[in-house]
Amino acid sequence: MILSTQSCDSTKESPDANGQNETVDSFESALPHGSSLANIEMTDEDKLKLAKAVGKEAVLISIDSLQDIIKQDSSGWCLYNFWNLDCIKCLEINNSLKQISIPDLKVKYVNTISLYPEQVNAYIRENEIVDDVFSIPTDTLENWAAQIDPTWNGTFPAMLLINNNDGTRLFYQQAFSKEELEAILGTLTL
User: Fold this and answer.
1) What radius of gyration, in Å, describes the C-alpha atoms of the chain?
2) In whole angstroms, what is the distance from residue 81 CA to residue 70 CA?
3) Torsion of CA 162, 117, 89, 3, to 10 degrees
4) Closest Cα partner for 10 from 34, 28, 36, 31?
């Protein structure tokens, strides 16, 4: 069943996951043509992350794999933002999430329509999304939304906030302004 939707240019060395120094020639090469972050302060880690975003693509996974990822995350608070390209409110939330800085909160984007992977991947790069992005093929699944949260009817936008360390799970099926998102995320004990 298919549900409709509503809805800097210097060379820098940074340590990689193994503690080895990795050279970043130009993190701005990861930006879409004509973009510049000259006036934005970024840590070396953020610059490295952005440089690695060149050619970033959504990872196609099954709904079962996504559920495993959600259950196994023990890093504290994680926000799973469910979106698709047809949902304007979803894209507005994606933009707001990029602007909100909460150091210990991990954000993962879950695209729920994988019919146009080239457009999804172009969107990821054009919008400089450097966090994990997954795509789940929902077009062939029955009741896929209820597998994420039993109260979800499949409409967008939708957001799951979860902390497996203390068992807290919050699900929202609605649009939020940037200010509303900041208020909700600001209440989390990180």
Assistant:
1) 17
2) 12
3) -80
4) 28
What are the structure tokens assigned to 169, written together? 């799970």
User: Which one-letter DSSP state was computed for residue 37?
Assistant: -
DSSP state of 184: H
Fold of 55-186: Glutaredoxin (3.40.30)
pTM of the predicted model as reported, rounded to 2 decimal places: 0.71
pLDDT value, residue 66: 93
Nearest to 22 by CA among 35, 13, 32, 31: 13
Separation between Cα atoms, residue 24 and residue 15, nearest integer Å? 10
Q: Where are the domains of the chain?
A: 8-54, 55-186
| pLDDT, block means (10 residues), the chain with 190 residues | 33 42 44 50 70 73 92 88 92 92 88 78 88 85 86 92 90 94 84
Could you give the CA distance from residue 33 to residue 17 in angstroms, rounded to a whole number?
Answer: 29
Q: At what angle do helices 88-99 and 178-186 cross, to 10 degrees?
A: 50
Strand segments, DSSP code E, in the chain are: 12-15, 21-24, 59-60, 77-83, 106-111, 132-135, 158-163, 168-172
Q: Are 136 and 66 in contact (CB under 8 A)?
A: yes
